[in-house]
């Protein structure tokens, strides 16, 4: 009653053993593909972690530089500006990691929160009662009044260009892991299971436990079994090309590192622009939001302080070099994995599975 290992000679197999062999080849094939995938997956996962650590390091560096701007140049509003600055960099981090948000919404939210502080602490430092309603009115009119000139829009443009490639790369790396995980658990057809049993275990039914399959026979069986997986070859090669394009984009003129560290300058220019246009802004705000309460003997608003340049260039250079090295190392490895899915059958038939150094091997029917 054997279905797979039928042979003219006497056999030591039963139908139940054939079923056990089918379960064994399914398990072994999954383990073999997992072993092949391991190095590739390990490299991608490792680089996802490395990129994220580098991103976080650069974001923290840029956030610290931006916070130091308020502490050194705009001390009257430094404490209250801490939260909007933190929110801005959290939003940027979430965007890079693929959250449903935009760079523009993050920057708009930041400048909407910043304007009431600039208006009440720098332009009109005598304001004593900044009610919630008045603060909200300043927030809502910020985009119409445009107190920060072109600088807020410039910041959106610069960040969007550089963060887009980082976001896409982050998503592409996650997609790579998804593809590899899916191929690991690709189901074997009944025909494939039978062919694998015939190749690997039918010799055992004749007592030939040391005979292994012939190389050509193994390749034919494996190619048939893994036809659906090897069809990924063209898409995988295209995927590697896309990764290469994205890493080149990240290293191009609109560099992530430069854009992030440039946030401090953009904010400083924006605040200086608002201060220089203080009288006109006050007149417009008075018409739209009314006049807030003032202290007796209004404090001088002439407190424009030039930005102090932070002496943290060495830290930045190291973070920049680290990210560039990781990009190069990663893309060079991924280029070598281009033929991964095209050669999967050859790699599975390599090693201990087939007989290479002997004159006899199993061809599916007999020892040859």
Automatic annotation (TrEMBL):
Keyword Acetylation tagged: no
Keyword Ion transport: no
GO terms under biological process: cell migration; positive regulation of canonical Wnt signaling pathway; regulation of protein localization to membrane
Gene Ontology annotations for the cellular component aspect, listed alphabetically: cell surface; extracellular region; plasma membrane; side of membrane
Location (main, coarse): membrane
Topological type in the membrane: Lipid-anchor; GPI-anchor
Subcellular location: Cell membrane
Keywords: Cell membrane, Glycoprotein, GPI-anchor, Heparan sulfate, Lipoprotein, Membrane, Proteoglycan, Signal
Family: Belongs to the glypican family.
Function: Cell surface proteoglycan.
Record-given protein name: GPC5 protein
Organism field: Mesembrinibis cayennensis
């Amino acid at each position: 009653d054997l279905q797979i290992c039928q042979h003219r000679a006497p056999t030591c197999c039963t139908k139940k053993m054939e079923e056990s062999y089918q379960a064994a080849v399914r398990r072994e094939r999954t383990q073999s593909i997992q072993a092949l995938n391991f190095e590739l997956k390990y490299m991608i996962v490792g680089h996802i972690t490395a990129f994220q650590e580098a991103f976080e390091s650069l974001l923290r560096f840029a956030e610290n530089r931006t916070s130091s701007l308020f502490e050194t140049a705009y001390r009257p509003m430094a404490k209250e500006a801490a939260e909007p600055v933190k929110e801005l960099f959290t939003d940027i981090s979430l965007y890079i990691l693929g959250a449903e948000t935009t760079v523009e919404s993050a920057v708009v939210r930041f400048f909407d929160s910043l304007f009431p502080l600039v208006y009440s602490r720098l332009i009109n430092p005598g304001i004593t009662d900044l009610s919630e309603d008045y603060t909200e009115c300043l927030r809502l009119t910020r985009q119409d009044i445009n107190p920060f000139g072109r600088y807020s829009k410039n910041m959106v443009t610069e960040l969007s260009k550089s963060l887009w490639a980082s976001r896409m790369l982050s998503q592409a790396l996650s997609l790579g892991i998804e593809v590899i995980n899916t191929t690991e658990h690709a189901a074997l057809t009944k025909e494939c299971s039978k062919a694998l049993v015939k190749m690997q275990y039918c010799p055992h039914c004749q007592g030939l436990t040391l005979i292994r399959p012939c190389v050509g026979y193994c390749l034919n069986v494996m190619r048939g079994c893994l036809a659906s997986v090897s069809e990924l070859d063209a898409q995988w090669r295209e995927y590697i090309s896309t990764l290469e394009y994205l890493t080149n984009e990240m290293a191009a003129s609109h560099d992530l590192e430069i854009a992030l560290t440039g946030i401090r300058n953009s904010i400083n220019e924006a605040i200086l622009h608002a201060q220089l246009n203080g009288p006109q802004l006050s007149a417009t705000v008075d018409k739209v939001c009314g006049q807030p309460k003032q202290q007796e003997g209004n404090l001088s608003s002439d407190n424009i302080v030039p930005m102090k340049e932070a002496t943290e260039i060495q830290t930045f250079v190291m973070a920049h070099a680290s990210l560039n090295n990781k990009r190069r190392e990663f893309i060079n490895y991924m280029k070598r994995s281009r033929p991964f899915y095209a050669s999967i059958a050859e790699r599975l038939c390599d090693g201990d599975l087939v007989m290479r150094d002997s004159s006899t091997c199993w061809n599916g029917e007999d020892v040859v």
